[in-house]
Amino acid sequence: MELLPLWLCLGFHLLTVEWRNGSGTATAAAQGGCKLVGGTADCRGQSLSSVPSSLPPHSRMLILDANPLKTLRNHSLQPYPLLEGLSLHSCHLERIGRGAFQEQGHLRSLALADNCLSKNYKETAAALHTLPGLQRLDLSGNSLTEDMVALMLQNLSSLESVSLSRNIVMRLDDSVFEGLEHLRELDLQRNYIFEIEGGAFDGLTELRHLNLAYNNLPCIVDFGLTQLRFLNISYNILEWFLASGAEAVFELETLDLSHNQLLFFPLLPQYSKLHTLLLRDNNMGFYRDLYNASSPQEMVAQFLLVDGNVTNITTVNLWEEFSSSDLSDLRFLDMSQNQFQYLPDGFLKKMPSLSHLNLNQNCLMTLHIREHEPPGALTELDLSHNQLSELYLAPGLTGCLQSLRLFNLSSNQLLGVPSGLLANASNITTLDMSHNQISLCPQPASSEEVGPLSCVDFRNMASLRSLSLEGCGLGALPDCPFQGTSLTHLDLSSNWGVLNGSIAPLQDIAPMLQVLSLRSVGLRSSFLELDFSGFGNLRDLDLSGNSLTSFPRFKDGLALKTLDLRRNSLTALPQRAVSEQLLRGLRTIYLSQNPYDCCGVEGWGDLQHLQSVADWASVTCNLSSKVIRVMELPGGVLWDCKWERLDMGLLYLVLILPSCLTLLVACTVIFLTFKKPLLQVIKSRCHWSSIY
C-alpha cells in the first residue's frame, strides 16, 4: 500500500502563463469586456453565456472563469486553434460536448475546477479523450467519484499534473490511474479516501508529488513508493506509518504526517533522502522506559497484511522504531504537540544534519545534552510548553551548541540553566525564557559549574540580540545584568517591581535597544529616573498595564515609532506632549483604557489628524460620571466644562451669600431694638454734656 503527498501546494493554477508579442513587450487592449494582454484573453466575470467568437484568433490562453456558461458546446473553441491554456473555473458547467476540443491540438493546460461535471461525466470524458497532448488537468470540486475519475483519465497518457481535490473519491485501486506513466504531480486532498489498494500507484513510475491531506486514511503499511519526493498525508486519522522493509533507496525528501493520530514514531525507509519530517499534532511517545518487558516477544507488534490470496506478516519493534530509519539527511523535524516524555539515547545522534528541531507542547521533564546530542548543526531548538525542570549538561562538554541561533525554553518549570550551556551557545541571537520562575545571578556564574543552577546569567553573551523574560517572577534587577550583550529586543513584561523605581539596570544596553516591553512591571510617574532620553535607537516601547499618571519623558530626535500606554492611570495628555515632535514622529500610539477627564482632552484633535492613534475608537473619557468615547464627544463639551467650573463658583456664592445677608439683618434688628438704652448707657459712661 502506498501513499505520498507533500506540502503539495501543487501549483494547480494551471493557466497563469504570460504571453508576449513579437517585440518582447506585452500589449494590453479590451474587446467586449475581455482584457487582451499579448496572447492572453481574460474574460473572467463577464456574465457570458457562451464562448465569445470575436477574440483574436492567435490567442494562446483563454480565461473564462466565473461566467455562467453551463454548457461548452461542440466547436465553440474552433475560432482559436492555437490555444495552449483554457480556464473554465466556476462556470456552472454541467455538460461538455464531445466535440468541444476537437480542434485544440495545441491545448496543454485545462482547468475545469468547481463545476458540475459529475452530471454528464461520460460526455465530458469523451471530450477529454480528444486531447492527446494535454499535460495539466484540474478537475477539483466537481463531485466526482473514483469511477468517474477513472473514465475521465482514461487514455490521457500525456498528463503530467492532475488535481482531483474536493471531490468524493473514497477508494483507489490500480484502475483509477492506469496508463498515466508520465504523471508527476497528483493532488487528492479533501476527498473521502479511506482505502488504497495495493498497486494503486504502481503504474505511476514518474510520480514525484502526492497530496492525500484531509482524507480518512487509518494507516499506511508497507509503503513502497520509492520514486516519490514529496508526500503529504496530514489531517487524516493515521495511527501507523510503516515503510517497506526492503533495502531499496527511497527518493523521499519531504514527509508530512502532521495532524493525525499516530501512536509511535513512524517506521521510515532504511535508505532515503528525507530532509523534512513533519509530525505535529499526533499522539506519539517513546515507551521503552515506561514498560519492563521481560521477553523480546513483549516488545514487538505484528501486522497481518492481506492482499487477495497473499498474506504477509510484518513485525515491528515498538520501542526502537526509529533505529532502522535513515535520518542522516534530515534537516527539519517538527515533533510538536505530541506526548513525548523523553528522548531515547542516540535518537538525535542519528540526525547529524539536523538544523531545526521543534518539540514544543510535549511532556518533556528533563533534557540531557551530550556529545552530538543535539547535533552540532542545530540552529533552532524549540522546547517551549513542556514540563522541563532541569537541563543536564555532560561534564567537560564544550561547543555542543555552537551553531544554535534560536533557543526557546518558555513556559516550563526551570529555575536556572547550567552556566556552561549558554557559554557554549556562543552564536545564539534569540533566547526566550519567559514563564519560568528563574532569577538572575547577582554575580557572573563560574563557567566550571556544570550542574543545574538556581539562577541564570546573561552577562557577556556577545551574540545575544533578543531576550524574553516575560512572567518570570523576577525581583529587582541586579547591577548590569545584561552587560556584554548586544541586545536590541528585550521583554521584561509581567515582572512586577523588576525595575524598582529606576531604569538604571538598563543603561548598559540603552543605546542599542530597539524594542523594549515593560508591560505590567509596576511603573509609576513618581519614578524620578523614569527617563528614556538615553534610548536613542528605541523604535517600539510598551508601557501598558502600569500606573503612569503623566506622559513619560523622552528626548528630541528619538527614533520611537510605536508607543503603548494602555491600561495606565492617565487623566490627560499634557499639551506639550500633544504638540511635541515625538508624537508627530510616531506611527502608532495606543491610548485606550485610561481614566481620561473629558474636560482635559483639549488639543487631542491634533492627534486625530495625525492618524497615529491605533485605538482611537476605543479611547474613552469621564464626563459627569458618564463614560463617553472621545470621538463621540459633543462639539460644545469644552464650553460645558467651562460652565461647569463657573457653576462651582456660583454654587459657593449661593451658599455663602444667604448666610451673610442673614447675619447682616440680625445685626440690624438688634441695633434698632436696643438703640435708646444703648445710647443712654454710652452717655452715662462717657459723661457726655448736653447743650440743653
From TrEMBL:
GO cellular component, one term: voltage-gated potassium channel complex
Membrane protein topology class: Single-pass type I membrane protein
Source taxon at top rank: Eukaryota
GO MF annotation: an example: voltage-gated potassium channel activity
Position of the signal peptide: 1-19
Location relative to the cell: Cell membrane; Endoplasmic reticulum membrane
Location, primary (coarse class): membrane
InterPro entries in the record: KCNMA1_auxiliary, Leu-rich_rpt, Leu-rich_rpt_typical-subtyp, LRR_dom_sf
GO process terms (BP): immune response; inflammatory response; microglia development; sequestering of TGFbeta in extracellular matrix; superoxide metabolic process; transforming growth factor beta receptor signaling pathway
Keywords: Cell membrane, Disulfide bond, Endoplasmic reticulum, Glycoprotein, Growth factor binding, Ion channel, Ion transport, Leucine-rich repeat, Membrane, Repeat, Signal, Transmembrane, Transmembrane helix, Transport
Annotated SMART domains: LRR_TYP
Membrane-crossing residue ranges in chain numbering: 650-674
Function description: Key regulator of transforming growth factor beta-1 (TGFB1) specifically required for microglia function in the nervous system. Required for activation of latent TGF-beta-1 in macrophages and microglia: associates specifically via disulfide bonds with the Latency-associated peptide (LAP), which is the regulatory chain of TGFB1, and regulates integrin-dependent activation of TGF-beta-1.
Homology family: Belongs to the LRRC32/LRRC33 family.
Protein name (Swiss-Prot/TrEMBL): Transforming growth factor beta activator LRRC33
